[in-house]
Specification:
9 helices; three-stranded parallel β-sheet
């Protein structure tokens, strides 16, 4: 009940129809992030694509300029020298066949998964487990790479993967409510511009239909698209 009262109180002062300039939207979200923990600031984008068609899939990765504020656990599939490189870069879990068996058994104690190219015959068997969680390593987003050290550091430093869902909606965390307004603005603009650059060849008409931002416990605020792309 207290949660519902707080949510309703936070709705005061927000026009649910208006598209706010990005700086005003961030200010509204920060003002209403009043939970007892450091809330994540999320972005949701409605895209004019149908990801059921291969030429309308939107996915990519962006290194947010101010990080995510979240501690990321990284697993790496690698052997020998590449395994040592991953560990030295800060990977939390490193392995090969034994790690694959753990994943198949449902033990997924990580947020991001990276693999060297030679590990893909092993990692390929994990698609049904990692795929639905958007954790399957993919060369298009730099998570299948021989340079595992750089990939681990990027993941730890604020790299955010994005992939459009079936309804043409894309979600991601772009920071914490404790971030300064300037830091959140930089992260959000970097993310929106990355999604804009990832426009697929099959997209027709309006590509970015709507953008909204919110904190974990707060209401969403609609954003004027042009202000987020500038």
């Amino acid at each position: 009940m207290a949660k519902n009262k707080r949510y309703k109180a936070n709705l005061n002062g927000i026009d649910r129809i208006k598209n706010y300039a990005i700086n005003d939207a961030v200010a509204l979200v920060k003002e209403r992030a009043n939970a007892k923990f450091d809330e994540t600031v999320d972005i949701a984008m409605n895209l004019g694509v149908d990801p059921r068609h291969a030429d309308q899939m939107v996915r990519g990765v962006i290194n947010l300029p101010n990080g995510t504020g979240k501690s990321i656990r990284v697993a790496v599939f690698a052997r020998d020298a590449k395994a040592d490189e991953a560990k030295a870069a800060g990977a939390d879990i490193v392995g090969a066949e034994e790690l694959a068996e753990q994943v198949l058994a449902g033990k997924i104690d990580f947020d991001r998964c990276i693999a060297t190219p030679d590990m893909m015959p092993i990692v390929g068997r994990l698609g049904r487990v990692l795929g639905p969680r958007n954790m399957m390593p993919n060369p298009k987003v730099g998570t299948v790479t021989p340079d595992v050290g750089a990939a681990v550091k990027a993941a730890k430093g604020g790299a955010v993967e994005f992939r459009v869902e079936k309804a043409g909606i894309l979600h991601a965390g772009v920071g914490k409510s404790s971030f300064t307004q300037e830091a959140l603005l930089e992260n959000i603009k970097a993310f929106v511009n990355a999604v804009s650059r990832a426009k697929p060849s099959g997209a027709k008409g309006v590509y970015i239909k709507r953008i909204s931002i919110s904190s974990t416990m707060g209401p969403s605020v609609h954003v004027d698209t042009s202000s987020a792309l500038s």
